[in-house]
Specification:
The chain is of the alpha+beta class and 139 residues long. The protein is built from three helices and six strands, in the order H-H-H-E-E-E-E-E-E. The protein starts with a helix and ends with a strand.
Length: 139
């Protein structure tokens, strides 16, 4: 029996059931693919953070206002959204924090932020700097 003969021998209900089954399977595969891909804005912000040493920008001092852990990981470390004020504007940027250092995050902790073109912004350092660099700009 050929494929044409097979489909011709199906009743309307059987054909509708077959089309519905195929559509549900395709929809489920698409849902799984996009569901496990992750939040694309979170991934883009993580890429900006990882390439922060390569793009030009000015360094600014600020303090942590608040933070939120994300589900995005790099190795064993977690990306955090760090919220801070810069020029009287509340901004956020990604920072990579080791699990053993999470408990050290607190409001008012000094940070160094790099702000570049195209709304690129990244946390360069959390905590007191080891050595002062004269290129920093105060808030």
């Amino acid at each position: 029996m050929s494929a044409k003969g097979f489909f011709a021998s199906l009743s309307t209900l059987e054909l509708a059931s077959m089309i519905f089954s195929i559509a549900v399977t395709v929809a489920f595969v698409i849902w799984i693919f996009f569901g496990f891909r992750g939040n694309s804005t979170s991934i883009r912000a993580a890429q900006v953070f990882l390439k922060r040493d390569r793009w030009p920008g000015e360094l600014h001092k600020s303090q942590i206002e608040s933070w939120q852990q994300t589900n995005t990981m790099y190795g064993n470390d977690y990306f955090f959204d760090i919220f801070f004020y810069l020029d009287n504007t509340l901004l956020s940027a990604k920072a990579l924090v080791a699990p053993g250092q999470m408990h050290l995050l607190r409001k008012g902790l000094p940070i160094v932020v790099k702000k570049g073109e195209k709304n690129r912004i990244a946390i360069m350092q959390i905590g007191a700097p080891q050595n002062e660099t004269p290129a920093y700009h105060n808030m």
